[in-house]
Amino acid sequence: MRIAAIVNPFAGRHAAGKQWPVLVRSAGGVGDRIETFRSEYPGHSESIAAAVRRAGYDRVVAVGGDGTLFEVLNGLWREERGRMPSVGMVPFGTGCDYIRNFQVRPGTAERFRAAIAEPAVRVSLGKCRYRARGEMVQRVFAMVLGCWFGKGMKIAPGASPSHRRFEFLLAAPVSPAGLLPLIFRAYLGLRGGGPGIMQLYAKSARLRFATPVMLEADGELLGQTDAVEIDVIRDAFSFAAPGIRR
To answer: CA 198, CA 143: separation in Å to the nearest integer?
Structure first.
């Protein structure tokens, strides 16, 4: 299995750049099959991912936070040449919420071993099209399909990366004081979120806003928009993990 690792050396307060060579050496002979690419600026991981798909790698490992994974997935998805590789993740960053959805043991060494191992599970992606500066932009995202957001806040307990639908949570306007109980319930993983929260399930959504709003995907700010279309891409790729947490 040919493995390409896309490392954000600045992730985790530069921990990713410092620890990655140590992890590769610890892999012994398997480490010889890993080729490392380091991103140098925002968006660079996306272009690297497109190049490694064209080059025919079997596995692409995102080494960084959820933002690094977001760039890697978008680079792989927009590149049409070459077979879609499986994706692994060695998390270094602030939130690292996506990997919480999988049966991967805690600890950097354990997560590294899972990211370069053979087992992988099929997962879905989300696709969003939104209007920005007068034109439609398309991006894919992964983390928002899972349970966790905001560094361990279990906002959507019933969601899963393997599902073929979204779990939408609609919140009525609340005061800052009223927001605190909702956040507390979310960290506890209490279904429904409490009064003022509505849960909906759908494979797609079309949203229009009277006033432009800030759009975010996988922790990345995409900019302001007054219109967004969201769809599920079923079984979009394979993620390196023994299984999905239930």
So the answer is: 21
Domains of the chain with bracketed CATH: 3-123 (3.40.50.10330), 125-235 (2.60.200.40)
Q: Compute, in degrees rounded to 10, the torsion defined by CA atoms 101, 178, 226, 153.
A: -10
Query: Residue 128's CB: how many other CB atoms inside 10 A?
Result: 20
Burial of residue 243 (number of CB atoms within 10 Å: 0-12, 13-18, 19+) = exposed
Instruction: Quote helix, strand, coil % in the chain, to nearest 5.
Output: 30, 40, 35
How confident is the model over 201-218, as pLDDT tens digits? 899 999 998 999 899 888
Rounded CA-CA distance 88/121 in Å is: 11
Express each pLDDT in 153-210 by its tens digit.
Answer: 677 777 888 888 888 877 777 777 776 777 666 666 665 555 667 778 899 999 998 9
- In one letter, which amino acid is 93? G
Q: Can you say whether residue 225 is alpha, beta or left, with left for phi > 0 and alpha for psi between -120 and 50 degrees?
A: beta
Q: Angle at CA 98, nearest 5°, toward 25 and 241?
A: 55
**Would the CA dihedral through 178, 179, 184, 190 be positive or negative?**
positive
Sign of CA dihedral 232, 193, 170, 153: negative
Residue 168's beta-bridge partner residues?
200
Full-prediction pTM beyond 0.90?
A: no
Q: What is residue 107's three-state secondary structure?
A: coil
The CA dihedral of 239, 244, 245, 246, to the nearest 10 degrees, is 150
Tokens for 170?
A: 């609609």
